[in-house]
Amino acid sequence: MDLKIYKDKQKVAEQFSTYFVEKVGAGDTFHVALSGGSTPKIVFDVLAENFSDKVDWNKVHFYWGDERCVPPTDDESNYKMTVEHLFSKIEVPQENIHRILGEKDPETEAMRYANLLEINLDRVEDIPQFDLIILGMGDDGHTASIFPHEIELWDAEDHCVVATHPESGQKRVSINGKVINAAKEVAFLVTGASKAEKVKAVTEKTKGSEAYPASLVDPKSGNLVWFLDEDAAAELNPNPS
C-alpha cells in the first residue's frame, strides 16, 4: 500500500492526473474503471485542461466501477458528470466509452455489463482484469457501490451486482470485490475531513475495520495507491508532499 498525501483536493487531482497519464503512456490499450464523486470531478477537469493533447485517447477505454440507476441525463449519473468534465473536452472515440446503462432494469444491466467486461478485458482465473480501477470511499467505508449492510456482495459470484443505497434505497450497478482485487492497479481518491476516521481504520486495519468494504480492497498485484489530502489523512500523522 502506497499512501500519497497532498495539501488539498486540487493538489490531489493534479498529482493523480500525472500518475494516470504516466500509466496510460506505459502500454498499448488501457482499460480503466472510473469513479463518481467530487474528487474525480476535479481530476477530470485537470485531465481535460492540462493533458487533453498529451494523451493518445484512442487507446484508453473507459468503464465505471459503479453507476446509479438513473438515465444518463440525470444529474446523479456518474456518466453525465464524466461527459461534462472530461469527454466533452477531449478527443475520445465514442466506441471507447463503455457506460453502465443506468436507465435499464438493474438486474439485466448488471448481467450485460459483466458480460461486456468478460468480452473486452483479459481475464485472470476467469475474472476480468482492468489496468486501473479508480475508487472513492464514503464516510461509511463503502467503495464502488458495495455498502457495509450488503458487504456479502463483495464476494458475489457475478462480476457485477445490484446494490441498494442504505438510506435512499436507490439501486446501483457495481463491480464486485473480485473484479476490484484482480486489477493490475487500484487507486483510491479520498479527500475531506469526514473521511479521516475511516481512512485510518481501513489503512491501519484497526479493530472492526473489516466491516467496511473499503478494507477488503487488496489487489493480488500488490499495487494499491491512496491519494489523500491532508484533511482525509489527518489521523495518519501525515507527511504532506
Key terms:
3-stranded antiparallel β-sheet; 241 residues; 6-stranded parallel β-sheet
How would you explain this protein's 3D organization?
- The protein has 241 residues and is α/β, with parallel strands linked by helices.
- 29% of the residues lie in helices and 20% in strands.
- The model has no long low-confidence stretch (mean pLDDT 96).
In short:
By secondary structure, this protein is α/β, with parallel strands linked by helices.
The tally of strands reads 11
Overall shape: globular
Residues in helix, %: 25-40%
Largest beta-sheet characterization:
6 strands, parallel
Q: Over the alpha carbons, how many angstroms does the gyration radius reach? A: 17 Å
Strand content: 15-25%
- Along the chain, the helix and strand elements come as EHEHEEHHEEEEEHEHE
Distance between the termini: 17 Å
Overall SS class: alpha/beta
Give start-end ranges of low-pLDDT stretches.
Answer: none
Give the rounded overall mean pLDDT: 96
Strands ordered across the widest β-sheet = 1-11-10-7-2-3
Number of DSSP helical runs: 6
Task: Produce the secondary structure layout.
Blueprint: E1 2-6, H1 9-25, E2 30-34, H2 38-51, E3 60-64, E4 66-68, H3 78-85, H4 106-120, E5 123-124, E6 127-128, E7 132-135, E8 160-164, E9 171-175, H5 177-182, E10 186-190, H6 196-204, E11 224-229
